[in-house]
Each structure stands twice: as C-alpha cells, then as structure tokens.
Amino acid sequence: MPDKPFSILIDESTDVSLTKHLCICARYYSDEQKSVIDDFLGLAAVISTTGADLFAFLETKLTSVGLSLKNCIGYSSDGASNVIGFHNSVWSRVRAVSPNCILMRCTCHSLNLIVQHSFELMPSSVGFLLSEIPSFFSKSSIRREEFKVLFQTMDPSNERMGTPSPFQKYSATRWLVRGKCLYNLMLNWYELKAYFLCAEAQAPACIRYRVTTISNMFKDETLYLYVVFLTPIVQEFERLNALFQSTNVDPEKLVSELNLHYKSLQQRVLDNQGVQLPLKRVDFGAKFLSDC
User: Fold this and answer.
1) Per-residue pLDDT tens digits for 13-38
2) How many CB atoms within 10 Å of residue 222?
C-alpha cells in the first residue's frame, strides 16, 4: 500500500516499569481483501515524548515500511497536548505535511473526559466516597464480613439477594469502573450508613476520625441524591464507551447511539428550542424524583 491513502492511530503510554512506549497502527482499504484493514506497525520504547520527537519517530517508522505521510488522510490519538495540540504537537506536524488530513479524536477518551470534567463540578464528597469505601473494606476481611452480616440482617427475607457489594475498587483512569462503583454505592447506601454508624461508636482511635468523617457523609441525604442522579448518566456514558471499544461493530450503529445519547442528555436540561429549562422542569431521573 505504498501509494494508497491511509490513516494512522498512535498512542503513547507508560508501562509498569515506567518505560514510555509509542504504539503505531495504520488503517487502509485492501483491494485484495475488499475491506478496511487495521495493521499494527510497531510498539517501541521512547525516551522523549515531545511532539517533535514523537513525530520524528513516527515518520521514521512509516518510511521504514514504505509509507509517506503525504498520503495520510486521517490521524487519531488520545487528547494529550503533545500528540493532538494545534501547535508544536505530532498532529500539527502531520497536518503540515498532509494539509488534507482529518483529525479524529478518540471517542472513548472524549467520553471519559466528559464524565471526568463533570465530576469536578460535583461535591468532592462524591468522589471521596467512591474511592474511600472500597479502600476501607479492602484492608480487612473482617470488615467485609461484618458488612455482609449487617446486610443480611437488614434484608431478612432475602429480597435483595444478589445485590453487588460496594467493595469494587474505584479508579479515575479506568473508563468502565466509575459507573459500577456509583451503582454499588447507591444500592448499598443505607446499609453502609448503618454500618458506619455502628463502626463510629466502636472504632479504635487510629481510624476513628476516618470512620466519623464517612459516617457524617452518609447522614447527608443531599449527597445521596447526587449519587442517585449521577448513576444512570455515568452508566450510560460507560455503556457507550464499551460499545466503541468493541470489535466488529457497525459504524452506523455507533453514530446512531452517539446521537441518541446526546439527544437524551439534551432533553434533560433543554426545551425543544434549545433554551435551558427552569430547575423544576429538569429531568433528574425517575429514581431521583421517587427518593427526593
């Protein structure tokens, strides 16, 4: 495919040994297979990750396999400024060589960043509970067992059997975890509230402040409503993110799902003319209204 148009996908990351790597893939149409093909071009360690150095490595790699950036019609990467910024980045240099090249931001990264930036506008106590609850229970099997016993005590008829425990670890960088942690926190809210109320009276001095802080948060019903409001929205973002990460999915379905998601969010806060709704008409969700 030396003279054929192609697109490139790059990603720079750091492994567990703190070594930086650059991964390069190419996408092109194969006349032989009569379909769009994704080819892995290489993964190599890099020392410097400036836009200039990554571009030089990219250009060298493409040249070594007989490709020219002049034939590049598409470029995709994550949202880091060194690879996608409009000035002094890999993208700015690719665009200089191939002016007609189209920039395609990573949809999965973008969806995750939307949720991440939205959480910065939420009370910090929401994020605190998401990380603190799993952390508190991860350090002690006794605590986990005590919570399970309390849960069973509060559910004597086993109506809530199968409810996921709130022990899954939270990570702001793992795209498909936040929604699960929110959901688990919401389902176990009142059991956790009871647990920390009991633990507050029995906690040793070394963790008493921590337990008291968490217990006071569970007494805040407004915080619970934030969790109820956020859970279905974040879950929908992560469902869409997982769909974009799947293989052999119909591109038309992806676009349709993305448009549908956008319209559903828009209808929560805007009227048909695009004017922001008054607070009393905002759609906070059915569970929010029932628990409010």
Assistant:
1) 888 788 889 999 999 998 888 888 88
2) 8
